[in-house]
From TrEMBL:
It comes from the Bacteria. The keyword Membrane applies. Residues 203-236 are annotated as: Disordered. It comes from Amycolatopsis japonica. Keywords: Membrane, Transmembrane, Transmembrane helix. This is Uncharacterized protein. The keyword Membrane applies. The chain crosses the membrane at residues 26-48, 90-111, 123-144, 156-179.
Length: 236
């Protein structure tokens, strides 16, 4: 195998483009964008509706409804104004997760056409999915950590915001998985499909593997073979 260096050295700072988009990175970018949209949608809808039915005696009961959202928690009592508290909001961590997912979407979309392997998209998609999952787990823990003293019957209903966040976690995890499934050997060096499986060296120099040279034809010495062309030898 003959290895030769062809063309000028590629600049280290700006990877060249292959002219063919990598489908797995495109899927990762789409899933990250979907997770971003679902995260933002979840910030504006309630997470849980928790209904506490308090029974102080056998004849009377009081219903207390707790509506938990991303920015505040409302306490709704019968014949009274709703009381709003903003303790331990999870809206700010959700916005941070959305910012990470936005960066992952941009990097995955740009990396889909790059020639050299890129690891930043994997890091961002993984960090975004793990961080978002942690925020959602925290929100669920806050919902189940509101005990009510006395004899009460509790009914919990999952709101549209939490369903959107559950779907966002699944989409973000899918983006992380798809970004990690991109192999370095699958990234083509150029638009030619013949070099699609050839890895790029770490020193940043493009290497071209030349095809084997054609072998000369073996002369046929059988009785029915035509005589060799003597004119070619005389011209030589």
């Amino acid at each position: 195998m003959v290895v030769s260096v062809s063309g000028p050295m590629d600049p280290v700072g700006e990877p060249a483009r292959s002219g063919r988009l990598e489908p797995r990175r495109l899927v990762a970018a789409g899933l990250a964008a979907l997770a971003l949209v679902l995260t933002l949608v979840g910030c504006f809808f309630p997470f849980f509706n928790i209904e506490h039915r308090l029974s102080f005696d056998r004849s009377a009961s009081v219903v207390l409804v707790v509506v938990q959202g991303a920015w505040d928690t409302q306490l709704i009592q019968p014949n009274d104004q709703p009381f709003t508290t903003s303790t331990a909001p999870v809206g700010i961590p959700l916005l941070i997760a959305a910012a990470i997912l936005l960066a992952a979407t941009i990097v995955c979309a740009r990396a889909a056409g790059l020639r050299r392997p890129v690891t930043l998209d994997r890091w961002l998609s993984t960090i975004g999915s793990v961080f978002l999952a942690g925020v959602v787990i925290t929100a669920v823990t806050l919902a189940f950590g509101r005990p009510v003293d006395g004899d009460s019957e509790t009914t919990l209903t999952v709101g549209a915001g939490m369903w959107a966040l559950f779907a966002a976690v699944v989409a973000a995890a899918g983006a992380a998985v798809m970004s990690h499934r991109v192999q370095d050997e699958e990234v083509p060096m150029s638009g030619d499909s013949a070099f699609a499986e050839m890895p790029t060296p770490k020193d940043g120099i493009s290497i071209t593997v030349l095809p084997p040279e054609p072998q000369p034809e073996v002369p046929d010495y059988s009785a029915f073979a035509p005589p060799p062309d003597s004119g070619a030898k005389e011209r030589d």
